[in-house]
Amino acid sequence: MALKPSFSTEISNLLYAAHGSPINSCIQCGTCSGTCPVANYMDQSPRRLIGMINADLKDDVIDCNTYWFCASCYHCTVRCPADIDIAGVMYAVKRYSIWHKTYGEDLVGPQFSEAFVKTIVRSGRSYEPLLAPSYMTHFGPKEFFQEVVTASKMMLKGRIPVLPPRIKRLDNFKNMIRKIIPLGESS
Amino acid sequence: MSKDVQLLIIDDDPDFVEGIQSILTKAGYAVDVAYNPKEGFKALKSKKYDLLLLDIMMGRGAEGVMVARKINKDPVLREIPVLIITGIREQMAFLFPGQPIHPRFLPTDELLEKPVEPDFLLEKVNHLLELAKEKKSN
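C-alpha cells for the assembled complex are given below, as produced in the milestone run.
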C-alpha cells in the first residue's frame, strides 16, 4: 500500500512524464535564480521555490507568485547542473494551483492561460487581440493607451492579423483535442 | 462484502483518496492506492484486481485517459471493470462550458463526477462488480 504522498511527491507526480527529473536532487546552487530573466519580479526565486517544495511548505509555495511569473524561457532547465526540469516544475505547480483552485482572483496568469487555451482549441492558433483583455485590465490608463497604440501600429504593418487566423483542417485538429480531453460534444 | 474483493484506486489527490478509501474499506473491500499512473500500472500488472477506480486529470494532463486506453489494449487487464471518478468538468469547464463529459468515451467505463456521494459510489461499485461476475459466469 502506498503511503500518503508528501507535497513534494505530489508535485513530482505531476511531472510524471518527466522521468529522471527528481526535484529532490536539487543542490541549491542558485544557477536557476541567477539565470532567470524575471526573478526580480518574483516573491521567491526559483531556487527558493524548489527548496520550499522539498521542505513540503505547501501553503507558502501555493501563495507565492513565482510560478505564475515564469516566462517559460527554459534557461534554468538548460543550465541546471542537477538536470531538473525547473520550467516543468513551474508548470506542475501551476497545474496543481489550477486543479485545486488555489490561485488568487487578481492574478493575470490563470486568466491568460485560460484565454490562450480557449483560442487554441477554437481555431488552432493564438490571436493577440483575444488574449489581450486577460491582462490589459491590470494596466493603468497610460499603459493601456500605449498598448492600444502599439497594437494598432502592428496591425497596420500586418504583424497582427485583423481577423483571427485559422489552421487548415481545423476539424481534424478539433477531433484530436476531443480524443485527448473527454469533454464537450462526443466524437 | 468479503475482504477478498480487491479494488485499486489510481488518483493523485491524496485527500480525495483518503475519503473514498475509508468509505470503501468500511464497506468491507480491500483497497490499494496508487498516486500516479506509473505506479498504478505497475500495481495492475503485479496483482489481480476486481475493480479499478481511476482519476482522469493526473500528471501532465488527462493521463487517466491514457491509462484507460492502455488497459483497453491489454487482453488481460481489459477484463477489469473501470470506474472513472473525475473532477474534469470543474477543472476544464472553461474549455467547453456547459457541455457534458463524453458519455462513453471508453467502452468499459462507468463515470462519476467529483464530489461523490458515498452511497452512490458504493452502489456503482457493487453494480460494476456484479456485472463483471455475470460476464465471467457466461
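Chain A has two domains: 9-99, 108-180. The two ends of chain A are 38 Å apart (CA to CA). Further analysis is deferred to the final report.
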